[in-house]
Amino acid sequence: MRIKRFVILLTCFGPFAAYCQQDSIQPKAALITNVPFTVLSGGVILLKARFNTLAEPLNFILDTGSGAISLDSATAEEFQISHVPSGRTINGIAGTREVDVAKNNTLHFPGLTVDSLDFYVNDYEILSSVYGEKIDGIIGYSFLHRYIIKLNFDSAQMQVFTRGTITYPRGGTLLHPLFTALPIQSLTLKDKRKLKGNFYIDTGAGLCFLLSKRFEEDSSVLKDKRVPISVQVQGLGGKKEMRVTIIQQLQIGPYRFRKVPTNILDDEFNAISYPFLGGLIGNDILRRFNMILNYAEKEIHLKPNSHFHDEFDYSYTGMNLYYENGVVVADDVVEGSPAGKGGVKQGDVIMAVNSNFTNNVATYRNLMQHVGERINLLVMRDDNPILLSFRVGRIF
Are 173 and 229 in contact (CB under 8 A)? Predict the structure, then answer.
């Protein structure tokens, strides 16, 4: 059975860079600015910044899983931003593609201007459709390695500091990941058996945890009696079938999470770099910490926040929702799923969920994430309003 599961994998792998630690004494890190952010589905961080001389800010996802910085191709066309072939490709969950580059550009945050940025140009239409927000680009390593970044999910604020010495807050833990362009952390897994593996720390992935299918098969870490369920997810390169299950325990540093929803990816394009890595930990786990990203010192500090004990989402309806042409549309409706049994058909326009008429895809998803709750949908089909009803199911 395929189920509703809104997972976005933004990981792309651009040019790697390495920076050697300076022997000289560094000055104390100084606060440059505070930047508010919005949390999207799966804990993904949305920032606003102005591009070059454009008057209005654009929407960017902050992504430790991106080895560069990038711009949506439609945004580049709309604002006539020049770009040329880069000779490089990016890897996504559903394929690889060649990308152009827009060279030597500038981003303006409140109180901070970042110059000399080369933006790779990629198509992010699927991200805009899933989130119901125009996604103009992704901010990754090209920005992150220049500063010390504090991410506070309690206040929804990003603080940007100069590189230098910094005192980490008490009550947390300091990780020492391996850094290429992307941070790689050792995690401990426990299910059928207990083992350790290396995984990307990926704030751009709107999920809890992902395993490469080859890692899962070679390690035999998952219990045999728990049969994963097929789902359809969206990410770089388009849509992709995955399987979803749970893992009994996941540990990062001293912090343990139980019964963690886990996606298993048949990584035919080896975006995960198996066997060097086993997968990634996404922002539906990472948002439970206030984080400090210190790329220069190869350190990440985690401190549990008010979301640490939030329950994981095990609900499903058996359909996906997309925001297209100003309306919310049902798609990928699975026969025999709760939505399918309730009469939902692919292409139905969702007018209201439980009398909520906001036309907001994120709001509608949140209303359908309570296991066992009856959902009343008002849909428009062939210009006729239809009232449908079903109960939200459970993955496991």
Answer: no
